[in-house]
User: What shape does this take?
Amino acid sequence: MKKRTVGSFDGPFAPMLDLFVKQKQALGYDYVGGYNALHVFDTFSKRYEVKNYELSKEIVLAWSQKRPNENDTTRSARIMYLQHFAIFLNSQGYSGYIAPPQKYHFSQHTAYVFTKAEIKKLFISLDQMEYTPNSPYRHLSFPLLYRMLYGCGFRISELLNLTVGDVDIERGIIHIHDSKNGNERLVPMAATLAARCRTYTESVHNDHEEDFPFFFKKDGTGYCVSNIERHFREQLWLAGIPYLGKELGPRVHDLRHTFICHRLNQWAKEGVDLTAMLPILSKYVGHTGIASTQYYLKLTAEAFPDVLEQMDELTGHVFPEVGGVMYEE
Assistant: This one.
């Protein structure tokens, strides 16, 4: 796994920040998000006179102030990273003020679970895409990209970061690097999806090096998430699937939710022991722990009420009840 190079901090906490990030990486985390946030803090801290690496209450409270146009998720994350750094400073014998827990109002999305009929309509519409000179590869890339999102439950960022070398077309395995929380994993595909990847690779990647983007634009660069989100809403309209707005979706990420729910639904119908399979599914989709996957038991029961009784029999008194609408992104 590629690691973020440490050593570019130059503020009053630079040596401690270097040591802290290196410690995180030694534990197996890429820590890209933390590095980026702390790099900004490194510059921010130059405004203050700091002695003996003391992270004062004044500095922490100033850092915690809400910025113009900053959403609560971003603010919460950067405060969290500084909390972790303060704990580290204390463990090293220095003084670090730890910001108190704060309540935030997060914008919550309602997960949308596609029906099998909607998935079929979406793929039919995608397969009707035609060649255009401005985007000569899109009609080949997008039908595969959306099938991979639904067929393996990938996050869209994971697919857009793929290179040619990450896709083993012979064994049908995808190598995910630097995923959410700095994790990496190997993801085997179904034979039909692996065959599509093989056909696509042979069509567009004959002369490309292993570090070339697997999904790429005319200029050879990769797509960004906003490109895909915009196209996805267009594709929903062409497929006759209503877009219900930002909060209700459907969003690109809902294809990941749908993969998980459809898999749980199928297992429940087959009478599979979900207590045994849920940890496997959790690892397959890249959750950091089984708690993130437990949400989908409730979501699946809501989407497929006809299997509610089977799921209750398979999971009753084993998993805690999951409430609310929060779920892993």
Observations:
- Residues 316-329 have pLDDT under 50 and may be disordered.
